[in-house]
């Protein structure tokens, strides 16, 4: 055993050496080996544990430091070093009362210990203050309880009291006191009888706040109320209540998984997910089973599906495969197959958006089936659902299956195509379309429309189904007619915006558009018919003639925008796609001239652009849309969880923001507010489109108006994301301009740009061989150097300051203006930066360019930089005045132009500073030479002589 102890001691000594060399990770590894080799309850083991705790403190792993100190104190109770290190860790974690207890114990054991005395005094003051605040908070909580939970009290007082409790719940101290005083049980009882929505929602928000980022409190709360209670409060027809309860559930999921949805790019903590796997599984399983709960409201059902959607992705809780395993797909397909026409006691409550949300959820789950086997399992579950439905060959089963297939075609398209290509399915749908039953006709039409998403499918349906759709369009039932109309519209538009492809006869598209218009503007038609009419237009508006006609049709345009303002997710596709088409904001494939020639030579089909899709016509349409209030509609629709739909919305916003005069309208109607989240999360193209729209707003409108409050910080990251090689030069330029304006706002915004890595990305464009990009980057740097942090970076061991100085020789006046402005700030704040300028090889030439510049402002900036260099530094002043700079300064002091007075005064100050330093003496006025004055050869020779 003695040999082992010697080996342990060797590892300890090596650990001490590593600790002194500040290699803390290595020290921890060596101390761990010493601990494993030592006797478990020996004093040596206690020493090794204390040492490792010291190393853990250095790397800020305070929980492990506390654990090691606990173990050391179990061996040697009241050991001063172990107590002191534990007190340090506890204080950092703001567990002040426990830290104070340890400090008092050290003082009791060793009263002469000087290191603990200031710590004890500091902790005593903190603990006393916290005790005082705790007493105050306790009194506040007690007072608020008396008001908030008594139904007979005045309503205004109760509302204020509940709002105050919510504020108190955000503080740890207040949260602990409220929990001890039974706030959870009180809220649970109150919500059974509370009618006031504000009080009800704030009570639920208190539960959310108590759970936020605190696992112990969350477990305690769930022990009191249980998961069924939270699902119960979710069951409401009042949207605010549903949203509040949904948020509460998301907070609980975040707490157990370590996610923080307030932080973008936040990911779950794998250790926490593993530790609380059982709790997470229980929560998500309860949500899954609740999808088909027959008694909950439609809004609650939508909220549950949205929660599943948010948490199934690998970057969240990665629950997709487990969801499929517990037959969650069948439950979603049950929701998809639900129809208002089949109203039984057992029917589910659904909203107009339910099938859309379910389809989006199916798509999200499928997106997370990363390997072929998982995709096959997904398909097997879908097959199982369809087989179960078709076992009973009644009419209702066929209708429900068809509606479910339609949702699959609108969600995971690959799965929908897989199902519809199975033997007998398409035939069944075509047979249903040819019956005399309006319900069968309607659902068959919807399925045919969804199936014609790919050109090969569209061609097949044109061959088989056009005559059926034409016949259905003659039907007396409006619901069937409008769907048949949309089917014809979709099939008639499969050539896209290629003016040379027209599947139907000339003029058919305009007739179809007119038919859609009649449904859209008719006030007697219900919203469902108008929604389908909008979808029909979404296909027809690929035709430029239809675009022009629609944009001139004020009633139709207004109906479209009013439909958008409802925020109904089922209207989303039709409305937004129509708007994308009107704005020409869809993805356009660029055709290289050489490829075009090659295609002509090979006699391949070449798409033709319609003359009405020229930029002038597009800009006119954008102006009409913006002035008609389209932004308000887009804001309402932006609540969607679908990333593809958000991309379409961002495209329309970006197209409108491409016209400078329209950007103010976008900001006034709340566009900037919804663009920020769209620029941070979604598809790659969607984020880019939203970010470019924000950049355009940031260029034209004062950032304090466009992005008030916290928004000016949130907009920084999407703008910096546009400074990427894969983005176009225009996107780079607009991002730089917007960042330049933001950098001029305040120090907080400048620090955020730095924190997001903005400085390095902006500087890349200083070296670009592109005049506009170089100029914009220099202007951005000019505003950033107002930050003390940036000045420190420029003072570092780098050539940043020197490069700015070299930019002063550029031909572009705006670039020189910005570079010299930045140098004015740097040289006035830092002598280090001043010295760097004189290390540039052509420093004299650059200085001459500034001092003799025809631009008066640049000339002034040059004299300002020179004054900063020469003042208070004899060596640098001597180097400067060894050159012909003195003659240039003398000439500047003789300037008569009032606009050059600032430069003249600074030139004199430079000469005075040099004279005070003893670098120059006051010259004889008669011998001064004006370098700007031309002299003849004879006088030159006299001067030389």
Automatic annotation (TrEMBL):
Its main location: cytoplasm. Residues 314-491 form the UNC-45/Cro1/She4 central domain. One of its GO terms (cellular component) is A band. GO terms for molecular function: Hsp90 protein binding. TPR repeats lie at residues 8-41, 46-79. It comes from the Eukaryota. PROSITE patterns: TPR. Keywords: Chaperone, Cytoplasm, Developmental protein, Differentiation, Myogenesis, TPR repeat. It is found in: Cytoplasm, Myofibril, Sarcomere, A band; Cytoplasm, Myofibril, Sarcomere, Z line; Cytoplasm, Perinuclear region. GO terms for biological process: cell differentiation; muscle organ development. Residues 931-945 have a biased composition (Basic and acidic residues). Residues 925-945 are annotated as: Disordered. This is Protein unc-45 homolog B.
């Amino acid at each position: 055993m003695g040999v082992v102890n010697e080996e342990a001691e060797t590892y300890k000594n090596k650990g001490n050496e590593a600790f002194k060399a500040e290699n803390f990770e290595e020290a921890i590894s060596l101390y761990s080996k010493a601990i494993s080799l030592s006797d478990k309850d020996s004093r040596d083991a206690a020493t090794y544990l204390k040492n490792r705790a010291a190393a853990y403190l250095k790397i800020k792993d305070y929980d492990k430091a506390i654990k090691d100190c606990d173990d050391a104190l179990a061996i040697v109770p009241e050991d001063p070093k172990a107590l002191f290190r534990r007190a340090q860790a506890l204080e950092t974690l703001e567990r002040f009362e426990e830290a104070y207890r340890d400090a008092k114990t050290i003082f009791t054991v060793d009263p002469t210990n000087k290191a603990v005395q200031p710590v004890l005094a500091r902790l005593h003051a903190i603990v006393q203050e916290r005790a005082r605040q705790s007493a105050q908070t306790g009194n506040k909580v007690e007072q608020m309880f008396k008001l908030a939970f008594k139904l007979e009290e005045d309503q205004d007082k109760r509302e204020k009291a509940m709002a105050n409790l919510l504020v108190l719940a955000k503080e740890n101290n207040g949260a602990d006191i409220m929990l001890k005083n039974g706030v959870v049980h009180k809220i649970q009882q109150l919500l059974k009888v509370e009618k006031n929505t504000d009080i009800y929602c704030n009570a639920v928000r208190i539960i959310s706040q108590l759970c936020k980022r605190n696992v112990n409190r969350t477990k305690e709360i769930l022990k009191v109320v249980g998961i069924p209670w939270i699902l119960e409060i979710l069951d409401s027809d009042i949207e605010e209540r549903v949203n509040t309860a949904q948020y509460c559930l998301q907070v609980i999921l975040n707490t157990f998984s370590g996610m923080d949805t307030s932080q973008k790019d936040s990911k779950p903590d794998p250790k926490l997910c593993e530790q609380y796997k059982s709790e997470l599984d229980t929560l998500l399983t309860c949500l899954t089973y609740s999808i088909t709960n027959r008694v909950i409201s439609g809004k609650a059902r939508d909220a549950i599906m949205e929660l599943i959607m948010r948490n199934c992705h690998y970057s969240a809780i990665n629950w997709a495969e487990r969801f499929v395993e517990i037959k969650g797909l069948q439950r979603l397909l049950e929701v998809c197959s639900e129809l208002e026409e089949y109203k039984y006691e057992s029917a589910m409550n659904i909203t107009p958006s339910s099938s859309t949300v379910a389809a989006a959820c199916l798509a999200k789950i499928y997106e997370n089936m990363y390997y072929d086997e998982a995709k096959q399992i997904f398909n097997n579950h879908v097959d199982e659902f369809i087989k179960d439905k078709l076992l009973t060959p009644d009419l209702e089963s066929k209708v429900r299956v068809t509606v479910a297939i339609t949702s699959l075609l609108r969600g995971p398209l690959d799965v929908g195509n897989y199902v519809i290509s199975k033997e007998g399915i398409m035939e069944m749908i075509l047979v249903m379309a040819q019956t005399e039953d309006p319900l069968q006709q309607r659902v068959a039409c919807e399925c045919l429309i969804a199936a014609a998403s790919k050109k090969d499918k569209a061609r097949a349906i044109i061959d088989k189904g056009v005559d059926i759709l034409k016949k259905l369009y003659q039907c007396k039932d409006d619901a069937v007619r409008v769907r048949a109309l949309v089917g014809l519209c979709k099939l008639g538009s499969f050539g896209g915006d290629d003016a040379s492809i027209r599947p139907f006869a000339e003029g058919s598209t305009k007739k179809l558009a007119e038919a859609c218009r009649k449904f859209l503007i008719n006030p007697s038609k219900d919203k469902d018919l108008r929604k389908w009419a909008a979808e029909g237009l979404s296909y027809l508006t690929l035709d430029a003639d239809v675009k022009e006609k629609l944009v001139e049709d004020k009633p139709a345009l207004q109906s479209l925008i009013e439909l958008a303002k409802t925020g109904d997710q089922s209207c989303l596709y039709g409305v937004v796609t129509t708007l994308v088409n009107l704005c020409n904001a869809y993805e356009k494939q660029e055709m290289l001239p050489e490829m075009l020639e090659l295609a002509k030579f090979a006699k391949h089909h070449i798409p033709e652009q319609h003359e009405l899709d020229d930029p002038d016509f597009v800009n006119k349409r954008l102006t009409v849309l913006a002035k008609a209030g389209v932004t308000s509609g887009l804001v309402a629709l932006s609540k969607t969880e679908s990333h593809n739909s958000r991309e379409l919305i961002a495209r329309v916003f970006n197209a409108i923001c491409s016209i400078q005069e329209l950007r103010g309208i976008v900001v006034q109607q709340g566009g900037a507010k919804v663009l920020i989240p769209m620029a941070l999360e979604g598809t790659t193209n969607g984020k880019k489109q939203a970010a470019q729209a924000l950049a355009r707003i940031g260029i034209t409108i004062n950032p304090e108006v466009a992005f008030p409050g916290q928004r000016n910080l949130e907009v920084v990251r999407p703008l910096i994301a546009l400074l990427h090689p894969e983005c176009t030069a225009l996107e780079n330029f607009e991002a730089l301009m917007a960042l330049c304006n933001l950098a001029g706002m305040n120090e907080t915004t400048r620090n955020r740009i730095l924190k997001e890595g903005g400085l390095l990305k902006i500087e890349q464009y200083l070296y670009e061989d592109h005049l506009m990009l170089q100029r914009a980057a220099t202007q951005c740097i000019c505003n950033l150097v107002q930050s003390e942090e940036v000045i420190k970076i420029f003072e570092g061991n780098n050539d940043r300051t020197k490069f700015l100085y070299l930019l002063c020789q550029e031909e572009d006046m705006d670039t020189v203006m910005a570079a010299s402005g930045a140098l004015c700030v740097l040289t006035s704040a830092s002598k280090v930066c001043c010295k760097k300028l004189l290390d540039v090889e052509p420093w004299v030439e650059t200085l001459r360019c500034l001092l003799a510049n025809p631009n008066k402002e640049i000339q002034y900036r040059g004299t300002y930089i020179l004054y900063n260099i020469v003042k208070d530094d004899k060596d640098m002043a001597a180097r400067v005045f060894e050159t012909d700079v003195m003659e240039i300064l003398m000439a500047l002091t003789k300037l008569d132009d009032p606009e050059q007075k600032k430069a003249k005064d600074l030139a004199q100050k430079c000469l005075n500073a040099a004279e005070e330093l003893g670098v120059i003496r006051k010259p004889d006025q008669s011998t001064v030479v004006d370098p700007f004055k031309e002299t003849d050869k004879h006088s030159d020779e006299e001067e030389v002589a």
